[in-house]
Amino acid sequence: MDKFLISGGAPLVGTIHVSGAKNSALPCMAAAILTEDEIVLENIPHVRDIETERKLLASMGAEVELVDGPANPHTRIRCATLSDPVAKYEIVKTMRASSLVLGPLVARTGMARVAMPGGCAIGGRPIDLHIKGLEKMGATIIQEHGYLEARAERLKGAHLVFDKITVTGTEDLLMAAVLAEGETLMENCAREPEVTDLAALLTAMGARIEGAGTSTIVVRGVERLHGANYRINPDRIEAGTFLIAGAITHGDLTVEGCNPAHLGAVLDKLREVGARVDLLGTEAVRVRAIGPLQAADISTEEYPGFPTDMQAQYMALATQSEGVSLVHENIFENRFMHVQELIRMGAHIKVDGRIATVRGPAPLSAAAVMCSDLRASASLVLAALVADGRSVLDRVYHMDRGYERIEQKLHGVGARIERVANAPVSQEEEALTT
Ligand code: EPZ
User: Fold this and answer.
1) Residues 263, 240: contact at Cβ < 8 Å?
2) Which of 69, 94, 131, 299 is the most exposed place for a label (fewest CB within 10 A)?
3) Residue of the nearest CA to atom 9 in ligand 1?
């Protein structure tokens, strides 16, 4: 298993580039199921979850080609025939977002067999709202042997009201509705930019959608969809992670290729803690932190509130801020996996239910730490960038799920970070962990 070796203390200075949004790419790739024509997607990030989605689509009979190269890398997907509309457990267990193929498969073929996604490190991650919506649209769904089997002659438009705001639930049912018979009214939808990205692709494919990006979406079903070319959004969570890296290391970092309009809550919070944040046009943000940072509370909310996917990264910053920061995690029931590892590095954090109390500034010391999930891993990278000494981060495959070449990008702006592939357990590491 690959590890990162990170020596702390270097301020990040320079310009770092943001890749395409993983959480846009996943639903947009699934949308290719809805047509026999070819879909071409640009700005798809080279991360593990995308590779998993490519394998999933190929296993169902899709042709998926990653056209790499300096000039306009893109992904071509054609689901001319779907010989095996089954999302197998072996793949789904590695990526629960595989449930995004459920709606499009039923809409396109009238049938879908999708392994029930297990929970994950951050919570139970049920998909009951996806199922409830499909049943309301006329699908019959049986759950047995760990699989969901959904069938429908043709889905019918319906009035769907989400009991809870769900990002992939909104995306899954949006993809089901675009080929349904009649009109679908969806209320209490997720407003994340990734939903808007998907709706833009579906519209380019011939779908009739109004209200994407708001809580209420109206879809008028059509008979068929055609191919399209589409460039997905930059990754707002990767951009936010880099902005925090610039602030925590007291550097001077320009994050380019991002969309500042998607980062409102994060930029406001960085200013509140005392970082200097400047917008450079519409695609770059410069962050500097000259003086000491001040504590500030966060409460994770659905978009446009402070993103849960930035909570762990912000907590690392809060360990270095002067004062007490309260971190409320309102979206997932177990998204504090990074806390114990941060404490092992010297952070002062107490957790009570969904609230973590962070007292700073706490000098961090290097340690051998374990990555547990995608964003917890990012939090440990940020902490290691300011810890005294050289940290060893194990199981960085969690990072590779959603961050493209992060060690190369950070190294390019001054971080002392290297990847060690299949590293044996060193004596130093044993000393740190025994
Ligand atoms: C998406 O997950 C993202 N993943 C997550 O990013 C992100 O943390 C999450 O939205 C919240 O913003 C992708 O887009 C691939 P939800 P999703 O459905 O859709 C409950 C990352 O780090 N819920 O919005 O699975 C659920 O348990 C990942 O990139 C139900 O109860 O999240 C949670 O408490 C992690 N029933 C809340 O809703 C359902 O049927 C929000 O979950 C669906 C969800």
Assistant:
1) yes
2) 69
3) 167
Strand partners, 40: 76, 229
d(CA 394, CA 398): 9
Q: Starting at the earlier edge strand, list the strands of the sheet with 159-161.
A: 159-161, 183-187, 217-220, 208-210
- The kind and range of the H/E element at 170 are helix 167-177
**For 410, phi and psi rounded to 5 degrees?**
-70, -40
pTM: 0.96
CB environment 385-409: b (16+ within 10 A), e (fewer): bbbeebbbbbebebbbbbbbbbbeb
- If one residue of 28, 99, 135, 164 were mutated to test the ligand 1 pocket, choosing by the most ligand atoms within 8 A of its CB, it would be 164
- The residue whose C-alpha atom lies closest to atom 14 belonging to ligand 1 is 23
Active site residue 120: yes
- Dump pLDDT digits (tens) for 285-337: 999 998 999 999 999 999 999 999 999 999 999 999 999 999 999 999 989 99
Whole-angstrom distance, CA of residue 287 vs CA of residue 5? 25
Pocket of ligand 1 (CB under 6 A): 23, 26, 97, 123-130, 164, 166-169, 194, 308-309, 331-332, 374-375, 402
65-84 pLDDT, tens digit per residue, is 988 877 778 999 999 999 89
Which of 22, 23, 135, 379 has most ligand 1 atoms within 8 Å of its beta carbon, as the pocket-test mutant? 23
